[in-house]
Amino acid sequence: MSQNKNIKIIGARENNLKNITLEIPRNKITCLVGVSGSGKSSVAYNVIYSEGQRQFLESVSTYAARLLKRTQRPDVDDVVNLSPTISIDQKQLRGSPRSTVGTATEVYTYLRLLFSRFGSVPNLSAGHFSFNNPKGACLKCKGVGLEFTIDPNTILDFNKSLAEDAVVHNNYKSGSRYYNIIKSSGKIDVNKKIKDYTKEELDFLLYTPRVELSNQDQGFIQRFSHEGIITRMIKRAGDLRGTSNRKEKTDKPYLVQQACSECHGGRLKKEILLSKINGKNIGEFSNMEIRKLTDEIRDLKIPEAKELLTRILETLTCLTDVKLAYLSINRSLDTLSGGEAQRLKLAREMGNNLIEMVYILDEPTSGLHSHDCENIVKIIKNLRDKDNTIITIEHDEKIMRVADYLIELGPHAGKNGGHIVASGTVNEFLNNKNSVTGKYLGNSGLLQINKTNRTPTGYLEVKNANVNNLQNVNCRVPLGVLCVFTGVSGSGKSSLLIDVFANKFRDKVIVIDQKSMTGTARGNSATYIGIFDKIRDIFAKVNNVSKSIFSFNSSGACPDCKGLGYKKIDMHFMGDVTVKCETCSCRRYKAETLAHKYKGKDIGEVLNMTGEEALTFFDGEQIKHKLEVLSKVGLGYLELGQSHDTLSGGETQRLRLASQLHKKGEIYILDEPTSGLHFADIERLIKLLNELVENGNSVLVIEHNLNLIRNADWIIDLGPGGGNEGGKIVVEGTPAMVGSSLVSFTGKYLKEII
């Protein structure tokens, strides 16, 4: 490497980094590789991105700096030859249902301008075409474009009475507050079967608006209010802040979203939607798939709008290039997956002509089928060829093999990681005995674990599924095996398995997705897997004191940092500074609490142990069993006190899996469990999923990773394309059967490795 152009990192100590020094070539593609938790993100984000942002923003005036999010200096001796950094990560794009693909990319902004100038209804401003503006927003759906409905058959058992729990929603069980209100109203006989209700009685139970009622059964006047069950649930679901976690669990199984009956999904008032261009209103343009919208815009013949139409087409082309053509620009950001969100950010960057920037990408192929990855590779190469530096955290073999340079961190995760294991080209990695990555790159057969296919023990059927883009799909889902759902992005995998199958058989399934945990910095690994309570019991018993003092959320917490172990200092126009609490030295507890020991360790020292360290420290079978499960899912490197807000999506999913592994005879549904996993981690995961099946469970997986797919007993491949071009079962069968298919994109790539 040329020594004068390298980015040089000297003495990096962020998180688990062991005072490392490394060089990254400029204007090249560099992949940071290594097992999960080895320190890749610490190098990419905590050091390079953070320092690039900090140095750039120091050149901004203090007035402007107050308006920008600042970062503190990372724990590193020096970083030289660094340019401003741009992060393209997988964090969910923040937003409510009002933030859309169109607003995020400004396509909708351009469309509003187009309709305000050239629409068929004159004297309408761009503000009239905004669904976030009272001038334009549909009065019924408030500009969201959707409304909720509930089928009474899903919430009522018509062959039961209310006293027999005819309402399946827990809020209306016999003896509950809402049940007692209905009973006290005197309007309904709670012992009468629902099927025998008059229309008036059923309307009162389900649809009546809020009414004030009273009775004198207790010898005095009682006043209370009643609202129809469905009326109340729809009102709760229509809260513009979105559904809460509690409502997700209690209400979501019964709610069905459909286009608003007033604006038909156009989000705007009827009179605004009368304005048309080429016979279509702005809502119809916005609800088209991007591939079709591109054709519509290209066909518009408005000479005065040439520049405006060109800008729209440029952005739509970028979205198509990152394989998002199956979306509509009216699609809400909060419905996008992490991979889709990242590709949307990538599309936004493709439109600029900056050079000598440092782009940091976090698994850019995540959530992508092998068929779609080829285009992402081209985009990354194009960014590099514009004289930019690309640093990507990556586990995908295709990206590794096109990279100019690889740097492997490890050798293991957590405390046992943070070292530079190897660096060089792919060929140099193949010959490096220290490189775990090189071992797998050189021998793909290591990940062929299942040699035979198991026979299903039974089936559960889905008939005429038509949610989202599904085209009346009939599917027999096999039980007692490892079954993988495959297909290109947007082909209908999640719609079929999660929206339809999991909802229909919700009493039988355990869904383990990659949604961020709702916990704060106070939620930790030990609490989640259910051992922190037992650990506090042990400390209390051995020291003959109250259990509560060993909670950093209670009386035992350090009074200065309130049990967080650190303080965040607002530096006004500079970045917030996080400093260790001097009172407790980052140990979260009062000195009196830390004076109590178990086997020579205080509670703070125990929380700093990794799962693997704690496994040899504790004797109790219950604690040891939970810690063994943590290691099984590849998270033995996590510290017991590690907070939820520091976990990646993949770590979150595996932690959820660890908390559910004790169940037998269950149907596990996992959504892309290989996300964020190295080859070695995937090998461990495949063995774990096989163990689950051998123990009598069924495992259903949505997956793009070919190494997991080839180890399936059965594959259900959807497509053939995404969006309106998908929604059908293309082929199903064993990996060998799918690999021999001439019509399956999955089969084409699977054939190469089986």
Strand content is 15-25%
Output the structural class: alpha/beta
Count helical runs.
Answer: 30
Nearest-integer average pLDDT: 87
Shape, please? globular
Unreliably modeled segments: 240-245, 571-575
Helix-residue proportion: 25-40%
Mind describing the biggest β-sheet? 6 strands, mixed
User: What's the β-strand tally?
Assistant: 25
Rg to the nearest angstrom? Answer: 28 Å
N/C terminus separation:
37 Å
Going across the biggest sheet, name each strand in turn.
Answer: 5-12-13-3-14-15
Written account of the structure:
With 754 residues, this protein is an alpha/beta fold. Helix content is 34%, strand content 16%. The strands form 8 sheets. The protein has a 6-stranded mixed β-sheet, with helices on both faces. The protein has a 6-stranded mixed β-sheet with strand order 19-22-23-18-24-25, with helices on both faces. A 3-stranded antiparallel β-sheet has the order 2-1-4, with helices on one face. A hairpin with a 7-residue loop joins strand 1 and strand 2. Helix 12 packs antiparallel against helix 13 and helix 13 packs across helix 14. The longest helix is centred in the N-terminal third of the chain and has 18 residues. The chain is globular and about 75 Å long. 44% of the residues are buried. About 1% of the residues have low confidence.
